[in-house]
TrEMBL record:
Domain PucR C-terminal helix-turn-helix span(s) in chain numbering: 477-519
InterPro entries hit by this protein: CdaR-like_regulators, PucR_C-HTH_dom, PucR_C-HTH_sf
Name of this protein: PucR C-terminal helix-turn-helix domain-containing protein
TM spans (from-to): none
A Pfam family of this chain: HTH_30
Record's signal peptide: none
Top-level taxon: Bacteria
Length: 529
C-alpha cells in the first residue's frame, strides 16, 4: 500500500476535509457514491491499495482500490473495511458498482465509484490536493470548488473554472443536461482542442483578455456543445482565467456572478488557498469579538473608527439531504453570502458560532438592513432548491462598530421569534415582540411570579387556559375562536370557566396581569413536558 500525505504548500499537516465536500469537489469523476447523512467522516490522507493488502488502522484515509474492478472488488472491500477507512474508491460500471453497495453496507464503509476512464494517478493527485488544501482552523473556507457550486446555484447551470491556459481548475456538480465539452473538459482537465481553436477564432479569449466582463457564446450542435456564458477572471488588471456557465444565466444573476468572479480572482492570485480569499469576507476578529475579546474591528476591516456595524445570525438546516451534513449546507450559505457581499462591494466578516452563521456588515449605513435581508432571502431560496434546506435569520440593529455584542444579542433575540413565513426576522421591525419575549423570559424564571388560580387553570383545563390567552392576545372572542378552530360560544364558555377557577377578572381590569401570568405558566408547562 502507498499513502499520499496530502501535505499543503506551507508544510503544515493536513487537517482534512469532510467526505461530502470531497465528493462534491470530485464531481463527475465519481459515477457512484454510497454513504449516509449521519456518516460524514473527515478525510485526512489518500492511500492506494491492492487486493491482498492489509491496513492496521486507516482512520481518515480515502483508499483507492486498484487492480480490481466491479463485483470482483467485494472481497477486498470487506478486508480493507476492517481498518475503518473514511471511504473506499473502486472502478466499475454503474451496474457493477451498485451491486457493491451490499458489501459496503455490510462493512459500514462509504463506497465511491470512479469513472472507468479516469487514471488512478490523476484521481490520487487531485484528492491529495483537496485534502491538503483544507483550512487549518474551523473558519469558513472559500475555495474554487465551493465557489463553482455557488455560481451554479445562482445562475442555474453547470460551472467550470479554467486558468489562462484553459486547464480546468474546478467545477460544480452537474445535473442531467451536460454536454460533451463539459464532460471531456473535466475528464481531460482541458477543453477539446477543436473547440478551443473555435473559441480563439471567434475572438472569445481576445474579448476576455481585453477586459470585456461577460461574453456569450452560441451553441455549436456540430460539436455537441450547448450555449455558454464566459466571464473573465482578473486580479490587479491581470487576466487569470475564465468562469464558464453552461446555458444562459438566470435573470438577475449577473451581479452575483461578477461578485463570485472577484473572489475567484483573489483566490487564484493568492495560490488557491482558501484562507487568502476568505480574508476578503472573513476574519477571526469577529469570532474573537463575539467571545468578548478586546478587538478593534474597524481597524482590522480598514474602515473609519466611527463606522457602524450590523450583525445577522443565520440558521441553515438541511432537511432530506440524501448525503452530506449540516456543515455542507452552512458552507454553501457562507459562500453565497460572501459572493453577494463581493458583488455589492460590502465589507463583511463571516464566522460560525454554535452551529449558526454570523455575518457582520462593517461600515453599515442606510439601506444595509434591507441589503442583508435580501441576501438572506436569496440564499434561502437557492438552498431550499438545492438541499431542501430551511434558512432563517435574525438581524440586529445597526450599532457603533464597538457594540458588536449588542447587535449580536438583538439578532439572536430576533432569530428566536415565532415564524411568520419570512426567513428574515428584523429586530427593528419586530422590536415590541423582542421586548415582550425578554420580559416573559424574566418572569418565567422568577419563582415568585405565579398565581395559584392560574396554575390550577393550566393544570385542570389547559384548553381553557390557551383559549383565554388567545382571547387576550387577539382582542376578541371571534378571533380566538377562529384561531382555535372552535365555535365562538365555546370560547365564551372557556373564558367564564377560567374566571371561576382563577378568581380573576379575565375580561376586565385584570386582563394584563392574567395574560402575563398565563404566558409564563404555559411556558413553564411546555419546558417541563
Amino acid at each position: 500500500m502507498r499513502r499520499s500525505s496530502g501535505a499543503v504548500p506551507d508544510g503544515r499537516a493536513a487537517d482534512g476535509v469532510p467526505l461530502s465536500r470531497l465528493v462534491d469537489a470530485l464531481g463527475e469523476r465519481l459515477i457512484h457514491r454510497r454513504f449516509t447523512v449521519d456518516s460524514d467522516p473527515f478525510v485526512t490522507s489518500v492511500a492506494i491499495a491492492e487486493p491482498g493488502d492489509r491496513l492496521e488502522r486507516a482512520d481518515g484515509v480515502l483508499v483507492l482500490l486498484v487492480g480490481v474492478r466491479g463485483r470482483d472488488a467485494a472481497p477486498a472491500i470487506t478486508a480493507l473495511a476492517d481498518a475503518g477507512p473514511a471511504a473506499i474508491a473502486v472502478k466499475g460500471t454503474p451496474g457493477e458498482l451498485a451491486r457493491l453497495d451490499v458489501a459496503a453496507a455490510d462493512s459500514r464503509t462509504a463506497l465511491l465509484g470512479v469513472h472507468p476512464d479516469l487514471p488512478w494517478h490523476r484521481l490520487e493527485a487531485l484528492a491529495a490536493d483537496l485534502v491538503g488544501a483544507a483550512p487549518a482552523s474551523d473558519a469558513p473556507s472559500i475555495d474554487l470548488f465551493t465557489l463553482a457550486e455557488t455560481v451554479a446555484r445562482i445562475c442555474g447551470g453547470p460551472v467550470s473554472i479554467e486558468d489562462a491556459g484553459s486547464a480546468v481548475l474546478a467545477y460544480s456538480s452537474s445535473g442531467d443536461e451536460v454536454d460533451d465539452l463539459r464532460r471531456l473538459s473535466i475528464l481531460g482537465r482541458q477543453g477539446p482542442r477543436a473547440y478551443l481553436d473555435r473559441l480563439a477564432a471567434l475572438g472569445v479569449y481576445d474579448s476576455l483578455r481585453s477586459g470585456q466582463a461577460i461574453v456569450h457564446v452560441a451553441e455549436h450542435p456540430e460539436l455537441g456543445i450547448k450555449a455558454r456564458t464566459a466571464v473573465g477572471v482578473r486580479h490587479s488588471g491581470t487576466y487569470l482565467g475564465t468562469v464558464w456557465v453552461q446555458g444562459t444565466p438566470a435573470p438577475g444573476s449577473e451581479p452575483a456572478m461578477l461578485g463570485a468572479v472577484r473572489l475567484i480572482g483573489a483566490l487564484m492570485a493568492a495560490g488557491w488557498t482558501g484562507r487568502a480569499a476568505s480574508s476578503l469576507v472573513y476574519d477571526d476578529a469577529l469570532a474573537d469579538a463575539l467571545d468578548g475579546g478586546d478587538v478593534d474591528l474597524a481597524r482590522i476591516a480598514g474602515v473609519p473608527p466611527a463606522s457602524r456595524l450590523l450583525i445577522g445570525v443565520i440558521e441553515a438546516v438541511p432537511d432530506g439531504v440524501e448525503w452530506g451534513s449540516a456543515g455542507l449546507v452552512r458552507s454553501a450559505a457562507i459562500n453565497e453570502l460572501a459572493v453577494r457581499a463581493a458583488s455589492s462591494r460590502k465589507t463583511v466578516m463571516l464566522t460560525e458560532r454554535d452551529g449558526q452563521i454570523v455575518i457582520g456588515l462593517v461600515k453599515a449605513g442606510d439601506g444595509d438592513t434591507e441589503w442583508m435581508a435580501g441576501a438572506v432571502r436569496a440564499v434561502a431560496a437557492h438552498l431550499r432548491r438545492a438541499f431542501a434546506a430551511r434558512v432563517v435569520a435574525g438581524i440586529g440593529g445597526i450599532r457603533p462598530v464597538g457594540e458588536v455584542l449588542q447587535s449580536y444579542a438583538l439578532a439572536v433575540s430576533a432569530l428566536a421569534l415565532p415564524d411568520d413565513g419570512d426567513p428574515v426576522r428584523d429586530s427593528l421591525a419586530r422590536s415590541s415582540e423582542i421586548l415582550l419575549a425578554r420580559l416573559l423570559g424574566r418572569l418565567r424564571a422568577d419563582p415568585e411570579f405565579t398565581h395559584p388560580g392560574i396554575d390550577e387553570l393550566v393544570r385542570a383545563d389547559p384548553d381553557a387556559a390557551e383559549s383565554v390567552l388567545d382571547f387576550l392576545r387577539m382582542g376578541g372572542f371571534a378571533a380566538a375562536a377562529e384561531h382555535r378552530g372552535v365555535h365562538v360560544n365555546t370560547v365564551r364558555h372557556r373564558v367564564r370557566r377560567a374566571a371561576a377557577i382563577t378568581g380573576l377578572d379575565v375580561t376586565g381590569d385584570d386582563k394584563l396581569i392574567v395574560e402575563l401570568l398565563l404566558r409564563a405558566a404555559l411556558a413553564r408547562r411546555d419546558e417541563d413536558a
